[in-house]
Amino acid sequence: MKAYWFDNLPGDQRLPHDSGREVDPTYLAKLGILHYHYPDVASVDALAAQRQYKNRDEITISPATMGDVYEEKVKMFFHEHLHEDEEIRYILDGGGFFDVRSEGDDWVRVRLEKGDLMIMPAGIYHRFTTDEQNYTKAMRLFKEDPKWTPLNRGEETDKNQYRKEYLKARGA
Ligand code: KMT
Ligand code: NI
């Protein structure tokens, strides 16, 4: 895992877009984000039991598995959105970037690689992209039934109850 401020420069979303300014993991914690590095799925099982993540599935995002819809999916994942539940991702292979909004509404880019597990709280604005390898194999964990409906950012999501609770919990 490596976190840094997104450079906001034009260019393919899959490029690193590293401004050169690192973000400390303690700042991610302040945004309500948890990060772990687990060598094996047994460690993930332990976390899942502890946090009561009852469901999971796996997704492989790559041209090989998605074919013609790959580019479309990559663009879709990159639309800024929130969820009304935690988003929990464990990288099984490959890598990718999650961009999360800072307190000042700037993008923090989090690079995840094999073995990284990240938990984003309900209500945080974020987006995802593969990197130049075009290959992310990830486990998605859920508390209850898979519920990952993305709510794209707009006037509605700014008024969303989970968004308000998120901001309140962050002291905003
Ligand atoms: C998301 O919410 O954008 C995703 O789940 C992306 C695929 S998991 C790395
Ligand atoms: Ni999401």
TrEMBL record:
Any single Pfam family the record assigns to this protein: ARD
What does UniProt give as GO cellular component? cytoplasm; nucleus
What EC number(s) has UniProt assigned to this enzyme?
1.13.11.54, 1.13.11.53
Q: Which prosthetic group or cofactor does it need?
A: Fe(2+); Ni(2+)
Residues given in the record as Ni(2+) binding sites: H81, H83, E87, H126
GO molecular function annotation: acireductone dioxygenase (Ni2+-requiring) activity; acireductone dioxygenase [iron(II)-requiring] activity; iron ion binding; nickel cation binding
Localization per Swiss-Prot or TrEMBL = Cytoplasm; Nucleus
Physiological role: Catalyzes 2 different reactions between oxygen and the acireductone 1,2-dihydroxy-3-keto-5-methylthiopentene (DHK-MTPene) depending upon the metal bound in the active site. Fe-containing acireductone dioxygenase (Fe-ARD) produces formate and 2-keto-4-methylthiobutyrate (KMTB), the alpha-ketoacid precursor of methionine in the methionine recycle pathway. Ni-containing acireductone dioxygenase (Ni-ARD) produces methylthiopropionate, carbon monoxide and formate, and does not lie on the methionine recycle pathway.
Family indicated by similarity: Belongs to the acireductone dioxygenase (ARD) family.
**What protein name does the entry list?**
Acireductone dioxygenase
Q: Which organism is it from?
A: Lentithecium fluviatile CBS 122367
Instruction: Tell me the name of the encoding gene.
Output: ADI1
